[in-house]
Amino acid sequence: MSRRLLAPGQTIGSYSLRFEAPEETRVPDEPVVSRLDEAEFDSLEEVDAVVRTLRRTGIQYGLMVVAMLLAVPVLALEAPWWFARSVWGGLTLNFITVAAALNVAFLVIALVHNRVANRSEDEMLGRLDDDLEWDDV
């Protein structure tokens, strides 16, 4: 069984091979203008400064989390009213703090750290504004 390749424009029976796009789908010859044409690169010093800043803020917020975690057992040992006295429906302050308040506090710390880190990185590296929409490009 032999195969035969056909050149563009040749016909097989009543079928012809045309490799041209119709006029309505052709790409215009004029270039597309974009506001993001220029590539922008950050220097190693700028990136290093951003990494040091983000590391410092990460350590600060991490120490806040560790302090909150350590405060619960310290209060349980040092303050009997914290661990022994029921406050609401038989629940102690210690239980309410561990079950709900710490989770909410950790979520708030994470959201604040995310916002601070993103804003400081954007300011230090001079990124595009958030109001630039991708459909404008």
Describe this structure in words.
- This protein is mainly alpha-helical and 137 residues long.
- The protein has a domain at 46-125.
- The chain is built from 3 helices and 4 strands, in the order ββααββα.
- It has helices spanning 44-78, 80-84, 93-125, and strands at residues 11-12, 15-16, 86-88, 91-92.
- The strands form 2 sheets. It has a two-stranded antiparallel sheet. A two-stranded antiparallel sheet has the order 3-4.
- It is elongated, with a radius of gyration of 32 Å.
- The protein starts with 10 loop residues before the first strand and ends in a 12-residue tail after the last helix.
- 1% of the residues are buried.
- Residues 133-137 have low confidence and may be disordered.
Cα distance spanning the termini: 53 Å
Percent strand equals: 5-15%
Going across the biggest sheet, name each strand in turn.
1-2
Global geometry: elongated
Structural class by sheet pairing and helices: mainly alpha
Taking the sheet with the most strands, its summary is: 2 strands, antiparallel
Low-confidence stretches: 133-137
Quick overview:
The protein has 137 residues and is mainly alpha-helical. It has a domain at 46-125. Helices cover 53% and strands 7% of the residues.
Entry keywords:
3 helices, 137 residues, single chain, mainly alpha, two-stranded antiparallel ribbon
